[in-house]
Specification:
Helices cover about 40% and strands about 20% of the residues. With about 270 residues, it is α/β, with parallel strands linked by helices. Strands 1, 2, 3, 4, 5, 6, 7 and 8 form an eight-stranded mixed sheet that branches. The chain is globular. Residues about 1-5 have low confidence and may be disordered.
Length: about 270
């Protein structure tokens, strides 16, 4: 078996259609499994923070603590800083970082959090070991990732079947694992984390507004994002196929009985002494 690659290729890129999704995310809809464990004084590292909406929520939940958001892309951190400043948060900072080699001493944070990060990594186990390293004894590593193969929708759509097949092929060609959610517990155990609580959560899009938003961002992403470029340049799809997939998304979004569910795997890992 080939050695895992220490890569972090973000399949989606940061096109407006991608950020439309990311800025919708909150601690409530994307990190509910972690929230009961938070205490006001905690020091938190948020890996892959993107535009910082979850990061800012976490900072509000630990008013006596400190939250550091990190991402590989400097430009997206400017948006995160704007998000935090707009909410008047002073217990938050941001930095460029690589999850495979975090520039923090051992035992620094009470919580290390990552949302939709491990699915894009060539070596998620190494990343989890690094997350474990920088969390304090008794602290938590908290990870949530989607599982594409477990996504489901109604009514049936051959075009969305094509979308799912295409996305998984593109993501794997980048060295990632799009069906990461089901693998989180296994990866954590391989990383040496022994006190692991596994759970799952969902996003569901069913109202007219939700369908329009979800289908629209995926239709736009299929035609104009870095994901679209990688699909074309990698020979995974032609322009006609991408247009057909985008059309299938818009057609699904117009169905009054349309329903779409995204399954996420979640792990809370407590570091031993």
């Amino acid at each position: 078996m080939p050695e895992p690659r220490e890569t972090a290729v973000y399949t989606h890129g940061h096109h407006e259609s991608v950020l439309r999704s990311h800025t919708w995310r909150t601690a409530a809809n994307s990190a509910a499994y972690l929230l009961p464990s938070l205490k006001p004084h905690m020091k938190i590292l948020d890996i892959g923070c993107g535009p910082g909406t979850i990061t800012a929520d976490l900072a509000e939940l630990v008013p006596g603590g400190q939250v550091t958001g990190v991402d590989r892309v400097p430009e997206i951190l400017e948006q995160a800083r704007t998000t935090a400043a707009g909410r008047g948060l002073t217990n938050i900072d941001f930095a460029v970082a690589d999850v495979h080699a975090l520039d923090y001493p051992d035992d620094t944070f009470c919580v290390v959090h990552a949302h939709q990060v491990l699915q894009h990594l060539g070596d998620p186990v190494r990343a989890l070991r690094e997350m474990r390293r920088v969390v304090r004894p008794g602290g938590l590593v908290a990870v949530r990732d989607a599982d594409y193969a477990a996504m489901t929708w109604y009514p049936a759509s051959a075009g969305l079947d094509d979308w799912l097949d295409l996305y998984r092929r593109v993501a794997r060609a980048n060295g990632g694992e799009p069906d990461a959610g089901r693998r989180l517990k296994a990866w954590a155990l391989r990383a040496g984390l022994t006190d692991v609580t596994a759970s799952s959560g969902t996003w569901t899009f069913a109202t007219p507004g939700e369908r329009a938003w979800w289908s629209g961002l995926w239709a736009d992403r299929t035609l104009a994002s870095t994901y679209a470029d990688r699909a074309l340049l990698g020979g995974h799809a032609g322009e006609e196929e991408l247009r057909a997939v985008a059309g299938a998304w818009r057609e699904w979004g117009e169905q009054e009985d349309g329903w779409f569910s995204v399954l996420h795997g979640e792990i809370l890992c407590r570091k031993g002494a």
